[in-house]
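QUALITY CONTROL LOG
STEP: pairwise intake check
CHECKER ROLE: data steward
CRITERIA: each record must contain a sequence immediately followed by its structure tokens, with no blank fields

ENTRY 1 OF 2
RESULT FIELD BELOW
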Amino acid sequence: MRDHPLGATATGMSPLCWHADVVIVGGAVAGASTAHALAALGVSCVLLERTVDFPELNRGDVIQPLSLGLLRKWGVLPRIEAMGGYPVVASGYFHRQHGFLGEWGFADLDTAHPHQTVLRHTNLHRALYAAFADRASLVTVRRGAQVSTLLLDGPGDVVRGVGGTIDGKPFRATGRVVVAADGAGSRLRRFAGIEVDQAHDYVHEYLMPMCPRPDVPELEHRTMRYVGAEGLTMIIPLDGGAEVRVPFQIPVAEEAYWKSLTPGQLWQRMVARAPVLDGAPGPVTGGVHTYRIHLRHAQRYVEGRICLVGDAAHVVPPTVAQGMNMAMLDADVLAAVIRRSLHEDDVEHGLGLYDQLRRPVNAAVLAASHEQTLAQAATGPAVDEHVLRDHAWLADPQRCREVAERVAGLRNPTAEQLGILDSQGETLP
């Protein structure tokens, strides 16, 4: 076995060694979800995450109904509920002059969880890791692991694992499959030679301030979306509804200007865009961060024994909160494919099924999210002029149900619905 460097390496010390069926590089939502999905099928893994602490990130707060079902299956959902996950049943659309335009919701959907659940991204991380206590025999977690090498074997340079350092000591983690959950800039994806299509360049991004939640019925287990000439402003309840995150659209070229505003100046501009905030009991809280948006898709998800999940495979605009949920369904399907491939002892050929099953589904989600982004993030006087016409669809129950089903993920098949079978012809447990 030989090392292929991905970055700086440590030498001169005997390495720590871990072995499992699967090695997962990247322990955020995509990687941690993959570990849970594998463990639920009896497949062991080593989960390697470079950060020691759980970072506070202004992203990935909304868990969709389909993902709630997966988290329940993996035993994570009770941890999320205990951390204050806040159920959201509908999303309302508003205009600063015309007021309420209408809403769509999840109440009529045929699902065990007819709602979204909103939880700070860092607390979702904590819930996923707390649930590993019930999977200790199958999941080896190593935080603070800096991956710097791939471990290759045989004349065909078959990937057998990764190496690096943890607490200044070298390590080697080996397995039969390596999962790249190392984000949009994935080094494993680049090593595998998988190209990424940049499908669209957006000219806007989102500023992500927070503030106390206004005490209004429109935000009682609901999100709000203000549309208008200046673009989209979203209001998302957090922390059991005590606070709200307020992502609002700004031109990419104006980031420095918006960040230079005092809290009072920023507050005035937020209220001008979303008048409901005028009733909030306080000004902006926490730091003000920006969220750049992209639409990217890897040209394939599998190369040899390397499989991509989450942002390593696809990056989607946050307009309808799909990215994190796509990653969870990646994990669900990939785990079943890996379990089947290991059971049939056909890893080299068996992993290709994951690409066949997930990439077309994700392509459709990316396309729908892009369409919604262009519609909701439109700017200019024409948006105000035609806002009533353009949102008349909110009065059509069938159209609202279609939107709710797509956002909920109910049109994206799980591993169970896909009927992935083992060599005995039995559905995977």
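ENTRY 2 OF 2
RESULT FIELD BELOW
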Amino acid sequence: MERFAQGEIKILICTNIVESGLDIQNANTIIIQDVQQFGLAQLYQLRGRVGRTDKEAHAYLFYPDKSLLSDQALERLVALEECRELGQGFQLAERDMGIRGFGTIFGEQQTGDVGNVGIDLFFEMLFESLSKVEEHRVISVPYQSVQMDININPHLPSEYINNLENPMEIINEAEKAAERDIWSLMQFTENLRRQYGKEPYSMEILLKKLYVRRMAADLGITKIFSSGKMVGMKTNMTKKVFKLIMDSMVSDVHRNSLDLVGDQIKAELLLELPREQLLNWIFQCLAELHASLPALIKY
């Protein structure tokens, strides 16, 4: 192969292995034997092995008598002949899809028989299937849209502030990390502890507020509020999604206290908690809900 690429050998006899992206710019002619045994995508790739430069190229496709070819083999040859201009790969793929069929969208079969149902009916079935997927999907919301109606604003101790190089910049970085995603916030927390040691309790409260908003955004929750012993979370979850998450939760502590009423997830606590303990309860609750999200990936 190296000698052929370098021009030392003028003719190369090989299998269809050369379809896998080889770029031999000196090659300007290819002869393919028994083309009826290849798929349309294979023939397209094989034909593309020549004409890689400005040299005129030729592709010769040989097959037995047409009477011996199947209808699909004949269709493939016609498609190749008609889609021979530069940039017609997509049209050829469409022709291939029409010849082989689409297969099952959510199954293992890779080819189907679209001719039996027709393209219009197929897409109707496709959109129906996608609508079912949508019903089982958690739709996240922007981080900045999450509201927390819980009045808690901790004050950092002066000795901790003095220990920080630039307190306001660090707090802004924490907010930006939370806005990106949960993993960025976790990485920020780890780096903060590595550089300045374990944070004081007031800083922990501040970080928990960020975690609560970030997890709420991922869960499609736009507002968190409390009234007496009741905690409410406004969400875009459907009942099916809520049930799936509840069934996936490992602990019964929060699962037994949560209920979806309309567009709100509600929980009735045993007693009215102080603000800091309430924030901790919400944090633990959302952490369990968030941990159950991977169970929905298969949908």
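INTAKE CHECK: passed for both entries
DESCRIPTIVE NOTE, ENTRY 2: The chain is about 45% helix and 10% strand.
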